[in-house]
Amino acid sequence: MRDAFIRGLTELAARDPAILLLTGDLGYGVLTDFAHRFPGQFVNVGIAEQNMTGLAAGLALEGRTVFTYSIGNFPTLRCLEQIRNDICYHQANVKIVSVGCGMSYGALGISHHATEDVSIVRALPNVTVVSPCDRWEAAEATHALANRHGPALLRLDKSFAPETDTPGELFRIGKARTVRQGRHVTLIATGGILGEALIAASILETASIECRVISMHTIKPLDISTVIAAASESGGIVTIEEHTVEGGLGGAVAENLLESDARPGFFLRIGLRSGFSTVAGSQQFLRHLHGLDGPAIAQSVRNCLAGTPLQYVARACA
Amino acid sequence: MSAITFALSTDASSASSQARELARCVRIHVLRMTSRAGAAHIGSAFSCADILAVLYSGVLRVRCADSRWPSRDRFVLSKGHAGSALYAVLAECGFFPIERLQTFYEDGSQLCGHVSHQGIPGVEVSTGSLGHGLSIGAGMALAARLQGSSHRMFTLLSDGECDEGSTWEPALFAGHHGLDNLVAIIDFNKIQSLAPVADTLALEPLAAKWSSFGWAVREVDGHDHGALARLLHAIPFEPGKPSCLIAHTVKGKGVSFMENTVLWHYRVARGVEFEQALAELETSA
Predict the structure, then answer these.
(1) pLDDT under 70 in chain A at which residues?
(2) Domain B12-283's class?
(3) What is the pTM of this model?
(4) Is-catalytic flag, A49?
(5) Which of A74, A120, B164, B196 is most enclosed, with most CB atoms within 10 A?
(6) Do residues B125 and B76 make contact, with C-beta atoms less than 8 angstroms apart?
């Protein structure tokens, strides 16, 4: 997804000299071509994320479309107040790009796990939060955010779902994508972990449990109408994120559902519940450890349905 | 609030006396604003009143009737807690009606205690959390360089603000990139929130610190309008380097019992104190 992003940004920068990319001294081998091709539109600001973010605000207030780039929590939590005061309050046209989100850098330890940033950043006013699930969404989101004035966070993780787009499909910020139809349960995922949701859906299909799978690439603003429709058209809602369950995608969906008239048959947030992940491991290993891989998601869904005959679930959806 | 009128002249020779009178007006406004509002930071506003007055008496290329004029010099008050002084200067210079100062700190007013740009002509950016302004100024300076514009970026920092690591990140950046269209003025009043700077986190040798970061540094009496103007008209101090002006100031400058005390960082002048302060400012030359 990282490569899809930089390809998208390269296309944009070639057309629009106002595009500027700042990196906090990360992106070895990834940003090199961009830096060579657009030396006037690229600055490595050094390992100084607070300054990078304040600089970005100043540049954006002077008419630039600024992308800040770093990994994990560095471009978000490290400089959160600069994001809040300098970017969001001024509605500065800055796109914060964080690569290696979730537990992409699992073996590097908790300093490199971006597993609370969605909750924290989405609480800020005026910011758009986007977490694509595959390379197509990442490229589309890059273009869409560049063309949408205002602050944004683009979260990219190392994993990506198999390409989910259909020929001619349009990507819109704030409009969820239904990537698989089903009537018993709706799985709403954000980020590359959508691939695990699709695996879970395939496993459940063998037990005649039909899953609708939604890519909620935009967490803020949330596509609440798609969530409400899913609540009334399927038997229950499961949110899936490689992120804490507190205040992230699951929190956003729950908040909005409770304020609506829609009442899902059941509701489950799948994500990190046990605090920090203190052991090293690949992204896949840690997903398995924390019950976030396809088989574990499938089992959690079964547990929700336990004792509920599928005919009943289907009737509830009808 | 009685109207204090200050006419901004373009006559450079009288700029110094203009600045002196503007600073006096600003201090009276700030005294009235903070007293009515029960607002803190009068000492911080007074220490930088002369710097602001000089900046707005012919140093900054700004247009009060066209506050977003693209070629204007940008000014960022990084020490946002001195907002009362900036609002007073802007009002005196005609950016918005002086009467509006009476709403400072009031319910529903856009004149917040810490500087906010929302709805206030002439305020470039909002500040209040220390250590933000210099990065924003550096970003604006970089933008000006990229677009080949000749306008300058002036930022005003407090000394306490130099405790913040986020002040030194842009200091390093601006020095490395030789942003000679960027100016950092340090209001070095030697007193921070709870105690003297020297007893909290010693900054000296402050000039050497900025110099070692690649800045051209000058030091000045921050209440000497003529000296301030001469230096601020000589930006950049050295081609290819950002300029740092360390202004040695007195916290609470202008009111005898407020000067050089930690107390008047937060204390509000009321009753006899207010009357005495007003009398001192009104009779000062």
Answers:
(1) 309-318
(2) alpha beta
(3) 0.95
(4) yes
(5) A74
(6) yes
